[in-house]
Design a protein that fits this description.
By secondary structure, this protein is mainly beta. It has 4 helices and 25 strands. The chain is elongated and about 70 Å long. Keywords: Signal.
């Protein structure tokens, strides 16, 4: 099968043709979908339209976008009018309605079978043996494929979010997320309303694309749940990057996230935790620690952070750098379900690289607006 696909790819790319305009550097939105042997279908007005963007040149194109209900990423090769898409990843479909799921499956099937493109003005047609996809240009300008768009201003560092509502969008103050950029890599962690979220992705061209965003599963009813779902939907689709003064705007189809540089806390005077001690959580944000099935504990020994999040045992490699606890590879833990257990956001807290200080037998960790205090025992 591998040899066959390689032969088909080489045959498609070797097909003689003139050199048409390139579709790269543009955001395209699906207009119609036409499976082989059927008429063109226009997605219903209630459905989010799939999008597609190509960045790069020749045999090294990066594909990003969404299926209408899940993120999309792939690679592609372009020569003349031949276009071969490979390695399509479309995330999970758990948030797709039945209608959106049907569109998603047809879209992915036709995209995987693409062998040719036709470009006329603001219309792009991708075709192959399974049918054709017709797109209209909705963002960007067509570029010379010998270059890839890059962000011309520095993003590196940590940014925190306030929500700018779109139509019926999230209200300000319901969420606190921190985005950390390091070159082309980007991570997100924090509170989406009721649930904590974590995710990692990349800066591709003028967009941020998250490969996956995970969240806890606490029930979030009413308006708060609606707002949280809209926010998670934004994070699970490509976001166009814009700079507005000192702010960074990540703009999606249903709203935008406005980020400002996170203040850098002063590095506290600290000493290393006692490797012989087990530290138990006593206060959270100035209040007595919530009751949990097991005590929330921490140990710092031989380069590993261990303990309990109140339900499951956790552990992972760590270093303390410039007064911050930095995990190497994240925290691993057991998978025990704890009914009626308050979710403290233990893992997402540590993913924010909290500052650490030790005052006698008290260990204090701070990240964003959270302060956790532990006592040695």
């Amino acid at each position: 099968m591998s040899a066959l696909l390689t032969s088909l790819t080489l045959a498609a790319l070797a097909a003689p043709s003139s050199t048409p305009a390139s579709p790269a550097g543009v955001t395209w939105t699906l207009g119609t979908i036409q499976p082989a042997g059927r008429g063109a279908i226009t997605p219903g007005a209630a459905l989010a339209r799939p999008t597609l963007r190509l960045d790069g040149s020749g045999a090294s194109l990066t594909v990003t976008g969404n299926t209408g209900c899940s993120p999309l990423s792939a690679q592609a090769a372009l020569k003349g009018s031949a276009l071969v898409v490979r390695g399509v990843q479309a995330g999970g479909s758990e948030r797709c309605t039945d209608a959106a799921l049907s569109l998603r499956e047809d879209y992915l099937r036709l995209l995987n079978a693409t062998t040719r493109y036709d470009l006329s003005g603001g219309t792009l047609i991708l075709s192959g043996g399974a049918g054709r996809l017709t797109f209209t240009r909705t963002g960007g300008a067509m570029t010379d494929t010998s270059t890839t768009q890059t962000i011309l201003y520095p993003l590196d560092g940590t940014w925190q979010m306030r929500v700018t509502p779109g139509p019926a969008g999230p209200e300000r103050g319901q969420a606190l997320l921190r985005f950390t950029f390091s070159g082309a890599k980007v991570t997100v962690a924090g509170l989406a309303g009721c649930n904590t979220v974590t995710g990692s992705g990349a800066v591709v061209g003028q967009q941020v694309v998250f490969g996956g965003v995970a969240s806890t599963r606490k029930l979030c009813p009413g308006a708060a749940g609606t707002a949280e779902n809209r926010l998670l939907g934004l994070l699970r689709a490509p976001l166009t990057i814009e700079r507005q003064g000192a702010a960074l705007v990540l703009r999606g189809q249903s709203g935008q996230l406005t980020l400002t540089r996170a203040p850098v806390p002063a590095t506290p005077v600290s000493v290393l935790p006692d490797p012989a001690a087990t530290y138990a959580l006593t206060r959270l944000n100035g209040q007595p620690a919530p009751q949990t099935l097991r005590p929330v504990t921490l140990t710092f020994k031989d380069g590993r952070l261990g303990g309990s999040d109140g339900c499951n045992s956790v552990g992972g490699a760590y270093v303390i750098r410039a007064g911050r606890v930095e995990l190497d590879g994240g925290l691993m833990g057991t998978k025990m379900a704890c009914a009626d257990q308050p979710d403290l956001g233990f893992q997402s807290f540590f993913e924010q690289r909290p500052t650490l200080s030790v005052q006698g037998t008290t260990l204090i960790l701070r990240a964003a607006e959270d302060t956790w205090e532990f006592q040695a025992r």
